[in-house]
Amino acid sequence: MTPTEAAAVEALQDHAALWSMGEIRASEVVDAACDALVAGLDTPGLRILAACTRAEADYDIHDLLPAALAELGLTFYPVASEAGQEAAARSLARHMLAGELTPREFTFRIHQRYGHRLPLTKRLAALDDEYDILEYGDRTVDQLDAEVTAEARRLAAHP
User: How far apart are CA 145 and CA 14, in angstroms?
Assistant: First the structure.
């Protein structure tokens, strides 16, 4: 697999996990499927998924996504599953590390979506709480951002 194809596979897997957890819209998964085709991946299910219109995506993705992922050897995470939540959290960590989210936005989204109940992200939820009381403590924003970044690296590297 070429580096371009590998990046497209990772992006499609991330989008699928984020969609399963309600983080993104179905049309964004369709866009990732189109990008995967352009990158050189080609399976029947991927072609069908990529052909969905924005209006069709919300209705058809439930049936099309599992098959398209299976053809590529990727994982479909059932809606609201713990494994899916962990995959979505790892995806958000990669987005933060890529500069698409600030550390504060990252912890807020994790805390808002999973609270303190997901073991993999408990520390991030606690760090989000620390942002809220930053003015009353002795830590700086830079120190907190550095700790969030380290936690994001840990998540992104998690298998």
Answer: 23
Per the domain annotation, does 76 fall within a domain?
A: no
Q: Are residues 61 and 93 in the same domain?
A: no
Express each pLDDT in 68-103 by its tens digit: 999 999 999 988 789 999 999 999 999 999 999 999
Whole-number Å distance between alpha carbons of 99 and 114? 22
* pLDDT given for residue 159 in this prediction: 62
Residue 22: how many other CB atoms lie within 10 Å: 12
Domain that holds residue 49: 3-71
Q: How far apart are CA 33 and CA 36, in angstroms?
A: 5
57 with 31: CB under 8 angstroms?
no
